[in-house]
Amino acid sequence: MVKPDVTDPDTGRNIGGWQGRISAIFDEMGTLAIQWDSHTLKSMPLTHITWCEEEGMSWSEMNLSNDEVEPATTRDTEDDVTRTIAEIESKSSWLHLGGEQGKRIQEIVNRAQDHDVFAVFRIWHAYLEEHLVFPFAATVAEYQRGPVRQGARVKVLDITFLDETYGTIVAVKQKDGVYELPLCDLKATGADVEIQQLVEDYAVWFANR
């Protein structure tokens, strides 16, 4: 257990009372690697997890000096830790993007009770149906096999359906024809800022899901 008034060496946050298991001992440095137990992980502030994700650092473990900790009684199992880490990762994995975009994507992903890919597909699809305003102008950002070519300017007319492979499909108009394209392949270059942002957030999620 971390002794009272000990602070995180990276953030200065008070971590007195945090508890975990020693996973490594560095005698030459007089430090220990501690993997936090499930109780500490569950009570860990989201701001701390967000900061760690943005900085590319681990929030599930920390190195501390030997004199900053003291023995404690085990209060969970290693399986509890594994399950808790998985739960937190499913709700924070997009924060590594940093900034507001990561937070926006994470907020939408967290709406899915089940975090399998198609469950999140459905959440995104419903969110897009609710918030996109049609029509809007866009540019085809990715290679297409059909008559609409990469770089083409199109008018996005509406959402048509949800595909298990390509995600949300939209109807677009180019010259005299109407075609269907994956929304993730478009950039809403001629839309309002809010629409541009939403389409870009969705494309980033789709590319990195």
Q: Can you tell me the number of structural domains?
A: 2
Helix proportion range: 25-40%
Our measurement of the CA-to-CA distance between the termini, rounded to an integer number of angstroms, reads 37 Å
Query: Roughly what is the average pLDDT, rounded to an integer?
Result: 93
Oligomer: single chain
Strand content: 15-25%
Q: Flag low-confidence runs.
A: none
Number of helices: 6
Strand order of the largest sheet: 7-6-5-4-8
Specify the structural class.
alpha+beta
How many strands in all?
A: 8
Q: How would you sum up the major sheet?
A: 5 strands, antiparallel
Order of helices and strands: EEHHEHHHEEEEEH
**Rounded radius of gyration (Å):** 23 Å
What does this structure look like?
By secondary structure, the chain is α+β, with helices and mostly antiparallel strands. The mean pLDDT is 93. The chain folds into 2 domains: 20-92, no CATH class; 113-208, no CATH class. It has helices at residues 38-43, 46-55, 78-92, 99-109, 117-131, 193-208, and strands spanning 20-26, 31-36, 61-65, 136-140, 153-163, 167-174, 177-182, 186-187. The strands form 2 sheets. Strands 7-6-5-4-8 form a 5-stranded antiparallel beta sheet. Strands 1-2-3 form a 3-stranded antiparallel beta sheet.
Topology, element by element:
Blueprint: E1 20-26, E2 31-36, H1 38-43, H2 46-55, E3 61-65, H3 78-92, H4 99-109, H5 117-131, E4 136-140, E5 153-163, E6 167-174, E7 177-182, E8 186-187, H6 193-208
Antiparallel strand pairs: 1-2, 2-3, 4-5, 4-8, 5-6, 6-7
Tags for this entry?
five-stranded antiparallel sheet; 2 domains; alpha+beta
